[in-house]
Design brief:
The chain is globular and about 45 Å long. Helix 4 crosses helix 5. It has 227 residues and is α/β, with parallel strands linked by helices. The chain has a single domain, classed as P-loop containing nucleotide triphosphate hydrolases (Rossmann fold, 3-Layer(aba) Sandwich). A hairpin with a 2-residue loop joins strand 9 and strand 10. The chain has a six-stranded mixed sheet, sandwiched between helices. Strands 2-1-4-5 form a four-stranded antiparallel sheet, covered by helices on one side. It is built from seven helices and ten strands. The protein binds adenosine-5'-triphosphate. Adenosine-5'-triphosphate binds next to strand 2 and helix 1.
Length: 227
C-alpha cells in the first residue's frame, strides 16, 4: 500500500494479573482500509483494539497513531484524540436510552459544540443512509437489535472519524441482520475514507473486510488476504 500506516502496534504486551492477554502483538492499519481481527475467544483481539484506540495502555511495546506515540500523550490529549479521530461501535449499541435515536446519532457533534439543527440534520441523513429513518423519533428501547446497531453505526460515523473501532458489532444479531449492518458500515466508512478495525468471530463478517488478521495466544498470525 502506498501511504504510511495510520495506526501501528509494535510488539505490544498486556497482562491482567496472571493472564497474558497480548504477548508481542504487532499490527498496522492503513488509511481507509477495513481490517478484520479474527481468532478464538480469549486470543486478545479486544485487548488489542483497546490498546490501539488508547483506552488501555500496554505494559510494553508501542502504539502509534498518525506518527504520534499514544503512550507519550497525556490522558486529556488521548481522550481528545478518541473523541475527534476515532468512532466506536460495540456489541450492544450502548445508546443513551433517554434520548431518541436521532439525538443519539447527533450527540457526538453536539458534544463537540455543533448547534442542534445542523447536528440533527446530519444525523437524519446518516439514519437514512443506514436505512433506519423510521426509528429517528423513537428511543433505542423501541428499536430492534438490528436497527439499534445501525443507529450506533450512524453515531460512530457522524464525526467522520479517521478510524472506526468495532468490537463484535454484530455479536447480538442473527447472521442475516449482522451481515447487512456490516455491509452498510463498510460502504459508509469507505465513502468517508474512514478506516475500520473490526473484531469478529464470524467468517462471513470478516469476509466483508479488505484484509483479515488472525489472532492466536495474544499475537497476530499473518492470514489470508481477502482481496
Ligand atoms: N479487564 C480484564 N481483566 C482481566 N482479564 C481480562 C480483561 N480483559 C481481558 N482479559 C483476559 O485477557 C484475555 C484476552 O481477552 P480479550 O477479550 O482480549 O480476547 P478476545 O480475543 O477479544 O476474546 P473474545 O472473542 O471472547 O472477546 C482473556 O483471557 C481475558 O479473559
Amino acid at each position: 500500500m502506498p501511504s504510511p500506516p495510520l495506526l501501528v502496534a509494535d510488539d505490544v504486551s498486556k497482562s491482567f494479573g496472571a493472564t497474558q492477554a497480548l504477548s508481542g502483538a504487532s499490527l498496522q492499519v492503513f488509511p481507509g482500509e477495513v481490517l478484520a481481527l479474527t481468532g478464538p475467544s480469549g486470543s486478545g483481539k479486544s485487548t488489542l483494539l483497546h490498546c490501539l484506540s488508547g483506552i488501555l495502555m500496554p505494559d510494553s511495546g508501542r502504539v502509534g497513531y498518525d506518527g504520534r506515540d499514544l503512550g507519550a500523550l497525556g490522558d486529556r490529549e488521548r481522550s481528545t484524540l478518541r473523541r475527534g479521530a476515532f468512532g466506536f461501535v460495540f456489541q450492544f449499541g450502548q445508546l443513551v436510552p433517554e434520548l431518541t435515536c436521532l439525538e443519539n446519532v447527533a450527540l457526538p457533534l453536539r458534544l463537540a459544540g455543533t448547534r442542534r439543527r445542523p447536528a440533527e440534520q446530519l444525523a437524519g441523513e446518516l439514519l437514512a443512509r443506514l436505512h433506519v429513518s423510521d426509528v429517528a423519533a423513537k428511543r433505542p428501547g423501541q428499536a430492534s437489535g438490528g436497527q439499534g446497531q445501525r443507529v450506533a453505526v450512524a453515531r460512530a460515523l457522524i464525526t467522520t472519524p479517521r478510524v472506526i473501532f468495532a468490537d463484535e458489532p454484530t455479536g447480538a444479531l442473527d447472521s442475516r441482520n449482522g451481515e447487512q449492518v456490516i455491509r452498510l458500515l463498510v460502504a459508509a466508512a469507505k465513502e468517508r475514507g474512514s478506516a475500520v478495525v473490526l473484531v469478529t468471530h464470524e467468517e462471513r463478517i470478516a469476509a466483508c473486510a479488505d484484509r483479515i488478521v488472525a489472532f492466536q495466544d495474544g499475537a497476530a498470525v499473518p492470514a489470508a488476504v481477502a482481496r
